[in-house]
Amino acid sequence: MLYLKYHTLISLVNLGGWLMIKKLLFLSLVCFSLMSLSACSILPQSNTETSAEKKKKKKKKKDSKKNTGEDDGEDDGEDDGEEEIDNSDFAFLDFDVSKEFISNTQPAIIYDKLILKNSGYDELAQSVDTFNNKVKTSFLNNSGETYHKNGYIISRADNKVVSVFAQEDLYTESVKYFLSSATYDSETGKDIALSDIINLDFDFDEIYSDFDFDSSIKDPNEFKSRIQNLINDESQGKDDYKADNMTAWTLGYNGISIYTVAKLTSGQYYYDQVVQFDIPYSKYPELYNKKYMAKPDEFGFNIAANGEFYYDINGDGEAEHIRLSANIIDGGYNIEDYVINIDGDIATITAGDLAGYSIQNFIFIRFNNKNYLMFNETGDNDGQILRMLDLNTCEFAANSEFEQYLSFPDYNSLIYNPRRMLLSNLIYTVSTFEVINMYEFSSDESFKNLNSSYEIVSSLIFTSKIDLQADVISDNGEALERIDISAGTTFYPYATDSNSYTDYKLDDGRTVRLPMGYDDDHGHTINGMPVGDVFDGVVYAG
């Protein structure tokens, strides 16, 4: 079966309503079956052979046959032709998601854009700039008085292929979604078409018949129709396969993902949501051009919203069907244990003392010859905590509970490279902010912060109550000059080290830095003064 992933872009301003919808949705997705059989009994405790080692072994075997005269020219079942899957010579490319600040509007417009950090990929950089401009144009066209946000999923980024999905959410009386995507040859910067990757003449009814259309989808036929329209447009060579802005696709390390808008149900309510439809290599290898089935020895990919996916964990050439679910008690507000199901074999893992009520944002990580399933657990005060399962042992990894509120973002997803992953956190400083930063997953099964400064994810806007002095800083954090700022000035929280300072954008586009402190009498302070004495617009969760 194939499964769905739901995408929602939220901010602290919109947490209340959306978290209730998400809570109802995920409560509808939980599985309560329990069996005594251990899921991991079917798997080896380690799978240590890398793709490079496998390739060397294969070549050695072939050379040995030639040297001994045993090679009779017959096919030994291993494809050595031009379409051979080549898993060697991968090098990840580094992307960041950064805020673009447009200051000639009131209020200023802030949206996210992609940044390619690698040099030597000039053609690719131009293509990424073109994609950014399309996203920017759409964002500006949709900007108004309503709340509005965009985000990205980079499903693959290496020296061979870059594939990216962009989602824009426009909050009016309801939520409207605008979707786009692009897949590029990394060396040439040229578009890679869906027809280059898969056989568009494949009988997709076979795939649809395997699909577990969740009961929350109001009209599965409409959903299938959107996917079929995408395939038809691609087969006709249309340039703009997302003409309705409601369908897009990407290539990742586990196959292609198709994104479209579907109407979901929650009780008596109906609402539109972006749904991810995955078609894994391991389930439909005959669908794919083998050239694009290659993957590095370490990688990550997004998993369906109900925690189900296919992947060959034990390396035997056959994909295992994997699902993680939660057994929730106390009226839906407390996870008692987790249930991991691998090809029908089930193991139960005690949840511990976190008292979470839902799980979401499932991520698969292949790292250091191990397979991990990571996810966010939502708990008290709607805070999210990252949890991590070792799929070869069906146990939580050694450092499974990380710093409080460390999690995968609900919006921007850069998880293709385990050594450079975008994670979010929740901080309580001059307000309650969600912040994002790059982290490295390490061999001790912990995440290491790669940068000292966090980017603030917030729609909060402050207005100064008093005159202030602040340093204008450059993009690299260097103080350029000290300026006077009058009361009534608008401040847009932008970045912070979560301890000693917060950076803000002004309406003229300049970035200023204000010192931040803490004392027992007043809590967090700015220039030694209580935050509430300095700014209007301060908000603390809870």
**Share of residues in helices:** 10-25%
Strand fraction? 35-45%
SSE class: alpha+beta
Number of helices: 7
What is the CA–CA distance across the termini? Answer: 41 Å
The poorly predicted ranges are 8-37, 50-69, 72-82, 239-243
Average pLDDT works out at 80
Q: Describe the biggest sheet?
A: 13 strands, antiparallel
Overall form: globular
Total count of strands: 32
Q: In total, how many domains does the architecture comprise?
A: 2
Alpha-carbon Rg, integer:
24 Å
What does this structure look like?
- This protein has 542 residues and is of the alpha+beta class.
- It folds into two domains: 4-37 and 88-418, no CATH class; 421-542, no CATH class.
- Helix content is 16%, strand content 40%.
- It has helices at residues 15-29, 51-68, 122-142, 194-197, 204-210, 220-235, 531-534, and strands at residues 4-7, 95-102, 109-116, 148-157, 161-171, 175-185, 247-252, 255-266, 269-280, 299-302, 308-311, 320-329, 334-342, 345-350, 358-367, 370-378, 384-390, 395-396, 413-414, 421-428, 432-441, 447-449, 454-457, 462-464, 468-473, 479-485, 490-496, 501-505, 511-519, 523-526, 529-530, 535-536.
- Strands 20, 21, 22, 23, 24, 25, 26, 27, 28, 29, 30, 31 and 32 form a 13-stranded antiparallel β-sheet that branches. A five-stranded antiparallel β-sheet has the order 10-15-16-17-18. The chain has a four-stranded antiparallel β-sheet with strand order 1-9-8-7, with helices on both faces.
- β28 and β29 (511-519) form a beta hairpin.
- The protein is globular.
- The two termini are 41 Å apart.
- The relative contact order is 0.13.
